[in-house]
Structure formats: C-alpha cells, structure tokens
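so my prof wants the structure for this chain in the tokens format not the other one, which i didnt know existed until like an hour ago. anyway here's the sequence
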Amino acid sequence: MKTSAFLYPWDVVGDPDAPARVADLGVRQVTLASAYHSTRALTPRHPRHRVVTAEHAAVLHPLDEARWADAELRPYAAGDWAPGDAYGEAAAALAGAGLDVHTWVVLAHNSRLGAEHPDTSVVNAYGDRYPWAPCVARPAVRTYVASLAAEAAVRPGAAGTELESLGWYGLAHLHAHDKIGGVPLGEAAQYLMSLCFCSVCRAGYLSLGLDADELTAAVRRALEPVWNGSEAPGGPEQGWPAVERLLGADLASATLNWRARTARTLQEDTVAAVRAQAGPGFQVLLHADPHPHRTGANAGVDPAHILGTADGVVVPCTGGAARAMLTPFAAHRPDSAVLAANFTVVTGMGGSPGTLADDAAQARSLGATELRLYHAGLASDSDLAAVAAALSRLG
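here's what i got, hopefully its the right format
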C-alpha cells in the first residue's frame, strides 16, 4: 500500500538528516504542511531545537500579495517558527531524498482570524462565539477558504494536496488550558453545542421554514438534561439517533439539511478552485468523517457526494475506528478514488506503531487503498523503528 507520512516544515529545515530518515521508513510520500493552525510541537531529533511554538494559524510559504490585495479576509504569515519559504525549503530537501511531496492545508480553523474578525465565528445557541471556528456559511469565510486552498495547496513541485477542516468546526477544540470537561458531552451534545446561530445561519434556518429564535430555545431545552446531569454521554442512543432524541427528528433533520448543504457547496467550490489553479493531474483529497453531522479537522461528509467531488479521502482509523470509518466510504468508492486510512503512530498521542502492520492489513480488507502516518516528526525513535518494521512487512 502506498504510504505517506505527515510532516511540518520545521521537522526538516535545519536538520540535514531528516529527509533520509523519513525515506528510510519505507514511505513513498510526505504530506507536508503548507498552511497550519497554531500549535506547540515536539521535535525530538532536531539538532537546533526540541519544541516549536507556532503562535497562530499561518501559511508556511510566502503569500501571493496580489491574490489578497482586496480581500476582506486574508491569511497570516508565519513568524520565526517558519520564516521565508519554509515549506519550499523542506519540500525541496524531501524531494531530493526521492520522496513525493503533497501539501497539507488546514482551512476552516483559525483562532487569530476569529479574534480579529469576531463576526466570522460560529455562534452557539447561548450567544457564545468560537473564535477557532470560522462559520463556513458566511460569504467572506467561503471566499477566504477557497482562495487559501488554491494558493497553499498548489505549491511548486507538489503533485497533490490534502485539505483538512474543509467543513464545519464546532465546540471541540484542543484549546490551550481547556476547562470544558466538567460536564461530559456525548456526540449529540457536541452537535447541539456546535450549531451556529450567526446572522447568516439564522437566515439559512429561516429559508428552511425554521424560526431561529424558536430553534435556539429548542436547542437550549434539549441541552438542559446535559447540564443538570440527567443525560449521561452514553445514553440509550449514540450518534445521530441521540441528536434526534434530544432535539426531535424534524428539527434535527432541518439543522443538518442547512449544514450539510452549506458544507457540500463549500467543498465543491474549494476543490474546483484548487483544480483550476493546479491544472490536470493534481490530486485533491479531503480529511473526512463519513457522518455528516460531525465537526472538526475531519469534516463530516456524505461519502457518495465527496467521492464524486474530490479524488478521495483521508480517514481517521486509530483506536479501533477503522471499520466504522472506512466501511461507509468503501461502499461508494469509485475504482479510481483514494481511500487512505490514517493511523497515529506516536505512542504518546494514543497511537500504536507496534500494531501498524496488523492495523494496515485490516484497513486494506475494509477497502483502504493507501496509508497515512501521523506524524513522523512527532514520533520517538522507537516509534519510528516500529513503523519501519511494519512497513517492511507490508511490502
């Protein structure tokens, strides 16, 4: 199976041994970040540093100023964690080691954008804004996402891209010093707390015959058992049936209709923008979840629709999730589409590099055509040794 490892530019720039180290794992490709959110990342082997702090979401290459000259929203340049053309420098070094390089672009997830432009953010049923979550129904956000994808995805020498967060973001967020776990939230409560009630979404609900104020009140009523503790996260139903039970089937369906339609058209427009920039033969994959109501880095999608829009998907499979995640996509996959199973291989982040060969074999039996490894730059030496052993077994 073709395998790609995720990397950040700072894993490579300044470390002359990094490209060969990655190639020696047995991977054919690297998925290299070209636009990424804020993070604090370990670099356990780098000769000059051990921790890199990316203070805000940024492009990791020089901005095309002409593209953004009149834009209402624009990306931010990176600071000293990725100066100049850090992406380009890393990509050239990796290509020099015989590796194919694809871009990795994070789109609708940007805390600085939300802080500086509060009106772009998702607003929950209580009026709280989520600055890390741009509302993808808003025209300015949609223009920004498609333009950012076209620029950051199509970098010199890249043969394809993987687009992350191309859909709704919600409550869940690995925020610094997070303190929202006092009341455990199940999947249904996460969905309800991720519904947006900004002015554009309120108008969207109205277009479907819903009164936004009544919907807000209904969401608050549905969440009350969660706040008082009478609704446990692991209730009698899980997933979408739990949303229907809490909110009512008709209201739940209407909210999902608005959100799914909004996400689908954004995905279509963004993929088209990338392809127009790149030209023929450029591969476009989405990080995706086969359950349309889910939010986050792996956007909830309709499998049949997305596999008819993009060239394939990258699907989170760590922790026994492969069957639930891969099967819905495999049922709709055209012969030419990529179905990449993404496994965390960093033990300290919940990964299991020691079982990678068996996990990959199961994923292949469930319809996966490729592997993704998260994340070669963050993994320990022992984790990387386990990855290399597993890939040698897979052949």
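also thought this was worth mentioning. The two ends are 8 Å apart (CA to CA).
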